[in-house]
Amino acid sequence: MEPQQIREGYLVKKGTLLNSWRAVWVVLSEDGLDYYKKKTDRSPNGMIPLKGATLISPCQDFNKRTLVFKITAEKKQDHFFQASHMEERELWVKDIKRTISCLKDGKRFARKSTRRSIRLPDTVNLAELYALMKDQDDGVKELKLEQDNRVFNHCFTGATVVEWLVSREKARNRPEALMLATGLLNEGFLQPADEMSKEGAEGGEQTSFLDQTKALYYFADSGFFCEGYSSDEDVLLKDEFRGNIIKQGCLLKQGHRRKNWKVRKFILRDDPAYMHYCDPSKGDDPLGAVHLRGAVVTAVEYVPDAKKYDIDGNLFEIITSDEIHYFLQAATAEERKDWIKAIQAVSKNGK
């Protein structure tokens, strides 16, 4: 019986011999993880057996890389993977851990029920807690806060987080809430926004999260931006980064000049309506942006020069108001449908 395929998609992988990182197509099955240079390759570039393996997430071995997890095979070889956003990492980690557990117990992979209980279990699930904190009606409110001649958008104070945890009975008291908030910070769900919170996070104390009204934080996948000069780069942050993040993930993009296809991480924002893209192996510095106000997006079955690069299926096209054409490929038909729907909404309602 062929092993069941559990999950597939783009991840960024660190080379086993070199320190280079590159986007690869990853397929998780019941007995291991295969990765390919391209989605269309017939033979994998490498295979990681998961029997007897261990997984660490988040992996903080790389100071300038977030959303990394580490798989250590039974023969003690380490493999490092980086996701493009928080939810993607959590999905991969959850399925890989379950696969490892099933192999250990001699069972077949089966997904657990996705029904959620209102109360968190005794062993706190930080991913679920994070989802509750982001609830638009009952979660932590994202605000525009001014401090030290700078305006921080889509953020909140450390004291607000602690008070929310206590008021929603996720913690019995402020010290317990502080420990939970520190866990969320250490796992990468919350990010420090200002100098005070950054110093706290880097201080090496047991509780690196600060229960203070002047310490500012933001959700890792929010539309956070700062108006003013950045302490790191000393440049003004661009207006186009202001919007809330609506969707993000990896897609194949056709180049405008050479017509070659490369994996790019896309971040879709609204108000203003932009979709930035970057090389997922090199961080989040944008290589370019698509202004979506008034743009048209549609599924297509044919793209010029696509066959030359063995690209076929799940294709779609964005035509901007300036008549610039962008050709993209999603991993699956469902993903293409989701991207088209999200881009259509932003192009219609965003500024």
Automatic annotation (TrEMBL):
Q: Which residues form the PH domain?
A: 4-101, 244-348
Is Cytoplasm a UniProt keyword of this protein? no
Instruction: Using the record's annotation, list all stretches that form the DEP domain.
Output: 136-221
- Keywords recorded for this protein, A-Z: Acetylation, Phosphoprotein, Repeat
Q: Which InterPro entries match?
A: DEP_dom (IPR000591), PH-like_dom_sf (IPR011993), PH_domain (IPR001849), Pleckstrin (IPR037370), WH-like_DNA-bd_sf (IPR036388), WH_DNA-bd_sf (IPR036390)
Name by which UniProt lists this protein = Pleckstrin
Organism, as annotated? Ilyodon furcidens
